[in-house]
Amino acid sequence: MTTAHLDAGKRPPARIVTARLTLRAWEPGDAPLIREAIDSSLAHLRPWMPWAVREPLPLDATVSLLERFRDDFAAGRDFHYGIFTRDEREVLGGTGLHPRIGPDAIEIGYWLCEAATRRGYATEAVSSLTRVALEELGLSRVEIRCDPRNSASAAVPRRLGYRHVTTLEANALTPAGEPRDTMVWAQTAGRAGEGRPRP
Predict the structure, then answer these.
(1) Which CATH superfamily is domain 15-144 in?
(2) CA atoms of 114 and 105, how far apart (whole Å)
(3) Per-domain boundaries in the chain
C-alpha cells in the first residue's frame, strides 16, 4: 500500500494530552520504555500484530526503529505515537495516523501492552486522534482496520460511532501466515458524535 505525504499545512501535533494519557511522537530515548511494554506482552501481541513476530528486538534495533518513526513524523510520511501515562513515565502502547488509504483520508492503528487492556485507553487515544484527523486536519474520512476475531480491537471503533463498511475476505495474512479477513470501519467528517465514545 502506497503511503502519501500530508500537505505541510495538514500535520498533526507531535503531542496530544487526553484525560489520562499523553500521546507523543516517538523519540529514540523512549526505547527502554517501549521495550518493557512489548517484552511483557509478546504472547498478547503476536496473534494480531505482524511486527510482533519479529520481537523481541535488541535495544539498538529498537532505537533505530524509533529514529525512523521520528524522521517519518518530521517529514510528514507517517505519524506514529507512543501511548504514555499522563506523566510519560510508562508506555502503555502505540497508535498512529497513517496516510496510506488514499487522498483526504487516514487510517488509525493501535496496540496496547497486556497490562493496559480493559481500561478504555485505546478508546481514549483513538477518540482523540479521530478528532485531530477530522477537525484539526480537516480530512474527510478516517478508517480503522482489524481482524474480525480481535473482538477487543473491533470494540473500539464500534464504541466511537464508526460505521462497519465492509469485511474484506482473505485479503491479508495473519502473523502466522494464514489467510485473514479484515473489518473496515469508517468515520467521516460531519457525522454527529464523530470520534466520541457512546454512553
Answers:
(1) Gcn5-related N-acetyltransferase (GNAT) (3.40.630.30)
(2) 30
(3) 15-144
176 contact partners, CB below 8 Å, separation of at least 6: none
User: Smallest Cα–Cα separation from 105: which of 129, 82, 138?
Assistant: 138
- For the chain, give the percent of residues with pLDDT over 70: 91
Sign of CA dihedral 56, 38, 78, 47: positive
> What is the percentage of the chain residues whose pLDDT exceeds 90?
85
Cβ proximity of 80 and 26 under 8 Å: yes
- Whole-structure pTM value: 0.91
Task: Assign 4 a pLDDT band (cuts: 50, 70, 90).
Answer: low
Q: Tell me the residue type at 149.
A: R
